[in-house]
Amino acid sequence: MAKAPKAVSASLDFAFFNFLWEFYRGNRGTIRSHYKELTRKFLDFNNPEKNPKAFLRQPQFEALEIYIFLKEFMDNAKVEEIFKAWFEKSGRFAGRKEGGILGENRQGDLLDRMTQDQYKAVFAAMRKNSRVYPNYIFALTMGTGKTILMATCIFYEFLLGNKFEKDSRYCHNALVFAPDKTVLQSLKEIESFDLAQVVPPEYVNFLTTHLRFHYLEEAGTSLSTLDRSRFNIVVSNTQKIILKRQRKEKTPVDQLFGATGNTLGANGGVYAEASDLYDWDQPEEEAELTTNQRFEKLCRLEQLGIYVDEAHHAFGKALAKDMGIGTKATDTSLRTTIDFLAANLNKAGTRVVACYNYTGTPYVGKEVLPEVVYAYGLKEAIDKGFLKKVDLRSYRNTRSDEFVDIAIERFLDATNGLRPEGMLPKLAFFAATIDELTGDLRPAVERALGKHGIPTSRILVNVGDEKLTLNDDIREFNRLDTPDSEKQFILLVNKGREGWNCRSLFGVGLFREPKSKVFVLQATMRCLRAVGEAQHTGHVFLSNDNLEILNDELQQNFRISADELQKVSSDKERVQVRVVEPPVKIKLVRVRKQYTVREKVLSPGTSLGLDRSDQEAWNELIERYRLIETQQEGLTATDAARAVASRSIDLTLRRDKRQFSRLTLVAEIARYLNLRPSQIEDLLDTTREGTDELVEIVNEFNELLYDEIIPRLFQLIFDLDESQQTEEHEVELIKLPPNGYYEVTAAKDKIVRSTDVKAEEIDKSFHLDTYCFDSNPERTLFWDLLREQRVKKVYFTGMLTHGQSDFFIQYIDPDSHTVRSYYPDFVFLREEPGGGEKYVIVEVKADNQVDDAVVQAKMEFAEQLAVASGMEYRLLKATDANERRYRLLM
């Protein structure tokens, strides 16, 4: 009995998703080798580190990585099965290291080893919540882009499902659940979203042509999918599309006149045998008929993936119910609905591939949701600049008028002159009731605006009452996030819980205590969505009572306090970076290599050099493919040398081999040489070896087909001509921004302005008026180069790397074999000992990344460009930069 509290504590606090991420991050290369080639291409296209123009942000891409990891590496295993294999170090986790958490931002209370009791507690919690289908939760805090992530996952599913049609791991159709009409409207972003942002260009046309969207907004909307069709995305705003429960018990009279097959067949009788002819179970009402029509249509869609965009504004008990925690069989929760659908799909001969839930938090009260496989918290999102910073102010002993007056004054001072993306910053006040809004809040806001000379036409009211909120008001509300909107002060009732997305919202005010405590958290987070390139600040005005509620809700849902929330990113600063004119230009020589393939005529009797009768040459060729068993006595080489004899046995015959026929050999070679199979067959017949001999050779050693036969055939029938052109270009280190400046958010201690240096040093650098460094080694190297006499000019070029500069180097990615662009960290002009000058391109890399294949590929192509341009390329370790060994570059 004494061990029970320890086990319970483990089940409450243990966050398996952290250990899962660490395993993935530590074995990313090995895991990628199990992926389909199309999958690797899809990942690389969305990887911000490999594609500077990648649309997805860090949390979205990391969640996509885990999504694909679960599908292609773990084969859609359930969470409890994954956890069991992880704990036992079996299956895919065989040989894993002990799983401590690395990094201060990832939460995890159990380090390294788990006891058997702790494992049992966590496993029991997972098993208790298990479904017949895999069920995963991705917990990304509000504002990090869950809708776009969901769309990206669906696009990935359809691409892979199309190419590998018989692979049961991939979804051919998607059912998306939205909790209400407002969120359903935001989900329409999936259809309007430019999928070219997340899908490699060669696959965009396929998806554009084949995607079919179906929105079930009203109770009477029918579903018009074609039976057994693919690539349907069905979006419903209600769970009642399937589950329809009887609200009251039927009377005996109702049972008689509404008799069903079950009623009349229960005790046998004359009707029992022919009950299927009478259509007893036909629906009596049109709404029920529509429900059944939707249900029947869904049951005819194969390999259905279910996506729940439910809990990004559902917290606490509502979230627990939707995730199936503590529910009863009779509950009509969302989870029960999905279970019911999955069971009926199985009966119809199809299946639910998996259910993917996108929530805002991994926690329900003190518990971690068992099925969470990836989480990105509120603190991380603010710290990384994916959300606004928070300025929180609370008030006591103030009346409504005073609260509104102070809040508006503070808000106007903080946002004076601010127009991110051309939009006016907005402030929203939430009232508990319509009467409070019309009687107290609106008059107070009008009086406060009058003190600042702001017209009342800047006020917009949205309360859900047609008498107060007209169609024109709804239109204005929907266009708040546009530069043309002149509405600035938004008065709302209960709008914080309905998935309202407004990036230009910079402040919220909540004075009276609402009926729902979680509403305070929901309303607070409304103003934190990021806008523009730099990180701005959201302003929250609360009464003291509401601040206490906010603290409780933050602790329960994000494990953070209001004080800690305000301190996040307090060491960072939003900077307007301007180009110093005239823009700096550098001459680069780009090397263009062109390869031309010319087909030759193969002379009859030409040998491929594979002669099995030449024993010496043949044995030398196949030696590396033999399977040899060596037997020796003793453990060491010394023991083996003293032994009387050792034995080597050739076990090559036991190797697994594919048996080729004449037909399959010709087909396989045709795949690689891109020639007609009939043409390949004629070519093989004209060789000295002949097709039949080559079949025997390949069946003896399959590897010879790919290592020798195909390459030698290519050389015999094609000539490869290489030509090289050099083109000199004058490139700008930075392009002029459209609005006069770039916005960047950076740590205060890594910002260096031109005003921070001596007057004689300004001319030596600063093609931008401010440099924002990513790391201490970069900043240290900059100061050293700036003060080095042999350095005549030095520019930091690693700051703006998303198309703002023409100073980039193209290279071939070693994983995806595609052309990518990379932006070096520095370029400086060095005085040579002989009196000349030379540009040096510098990249600063962490010591553990220097030998990475991608870094080496970048260096190889950068050196080619540097040599052609009369420059020099140098890779400097971060430790060398930190320890001021910059003279290695001299």
Topology (SSEs and partners):
Layout lengths: L3 H10 L2 H11 L1 H5 L4 H10 L11 H16 L5 H10 L27 H13 L6 E6 L5 H18 L9 E5 L3 H7 L1 H4 L8 H10 L1 E5 L15 E5 L15 H6 L3 H5 L20 H13 L5 E5 L7 H7 L11 H14 L4 E8 L3 E2 L2 E2 L3 E5 L1 H6 L5 E7 L4 H15 L11 E6 L2 H18 L7 E4 L8 H8 L10 E5 L11 E6 L7 H8 L11 E7 H15 L3 H6 L4 E6 L7 E15 L15 H8 L5 E4 L5 H6 L4 E4 L11 H12 L3 H10 L3 H11 L2 H15 E15 L9 E6 L3 E3 L5 H4 L7 E3 L3 H12 L3 E6 L12 E4 L6 E4 L3 E6 L5 E9 L7 H16 L3 E6 H5 L8
Parallel strand pairs: 1-6, 1-9, 2-4, 2-5, 3-4, 5-6, 10-15, 11-13, 11-14, 12-13, 14-15, 28-29
Antiparallel strand pairs: 7-8, 16-21, 17-20, 18-19, 22-23, 24-27, 25-26, 27-28
Helix pairs in contact: 1-7, 5-8, 6-7, 18-19, 21-22, 26-27, 27-28
Characterize the structure shown.
The protein is α/β, with parallel strands linked by helices. It has 4 domains: 131-263 and 287-376, P-loop containing nucleotide triphosphate hydrolases (Rossmann fold, 3-Layer(aba) Sandwich), CATH 3.40.50; 385-570, Rossmann fold; 593-723, no CATH class; 733-889, Trna Endonuclease, Chain: A, domain 1. It has 33 helices and 29 strands.
Mean pLDDT, nearest integer? 81
**Continuous helix count:** 33
Strand content: 15-25%
Task: Count all strands and give the number.
Answer: 29
- In total, the number of domains comes to 4
Please state the structural category. Answer: alpha/beta
* CATH C-level class of the largest domain: Alpha Beta
CATH topology term of the largest domain = Rossmann fold
CATH architecture of the largest domain: 3-Layer(aba) Sandwich
| Rg measurement, Å | 33 Å
**In percent, how helical is the residue content?**
25-40%
Strand order of the largest sheet: 3-4-2-5-6-1-9
**Which residue ranges are poorly predicted, with pLDDT under 50 across at least 5 consecutive positions?**
1-12, 99-112, 259-268, 274-282, 311-316
Shape: globular
What's the story with the biggest beta sheet? 7 strands, parallel
Domain TnsA endonuclease N-terminal: 807-876
InterPro entries: Helicase/UvrB_N (IPR006935), P-loop_NTPase (IPR027417), TnsA_N (IPR014833)
Transmembrane segments: 136-159
Keywords: ATP-binding, Helicase, Hydrolase, Membrane, Nucleotide-binding, Transmembrane, Transmembrane helix
